[in-house]
Design goal:
The protein contains seven helices and six strands. The protein has 204 residues and is α+β, with helices and mostly antiparallel strands. A hairpin with a 2-residue loop joins strand 3 and strand 4. The longest helix has 21 residues.
Length: 204
Amino acid sequence: MQQLRCHDLKAGDILLKVSDGSILSKGIQFGQRSVGGANPGVVHAGVLFDPTYIIEAQGAGISANDLRVQNLHYGYHVFRCHKESVSAGAGTCAKMMFDIHHGGRNLGYTVWGAIGSLFGGAGRAASRSEMDALLDRILQGRKHRFFCSQFVVFVYQFVAEQCGLTAASMFSSHDAKVEPSELAASLQRSSQFSETGYLLPEQR
């Protein structure tokens, strides 16, 4: 695997955060390990808008953070979609969701959703009509909560449908059922993504 810097990254790259040893990270690790997660050390996920800004669902809702400043101390595995149009669209979609939340504060974080994803089973991927209906409600200012890996999966499934693919061709599970550990496992076995490398803490 190759060590990456920000100039190696592209819009749409999926970043999987490795546990930083904090209490929160340890709690997520423990929960994922307790249910047999294959990658319990992966505790968070986000989508790149550009080579330096990651869009992520966290406590403040959908947020944009600079990898060189706010997220400098974190390490990540980096996965890239093979379809450039989907990858670029994912970066744009993630930024759009951030802009919506920044304007109306309606895309908050769900702790209970994150916990429930550990026990809920895979479920089927949402259909295009279901995702379109959800986006319509969001654009109308209705509240909807995401947890980190759910947000990543939703963005990629939504963009896939817009590009003439199926949501399930990106991720076969329902977005609300994919915790960080399962997202890592899905990316590792996917024919649509490859692990590009890793970002080390403090090295950008």
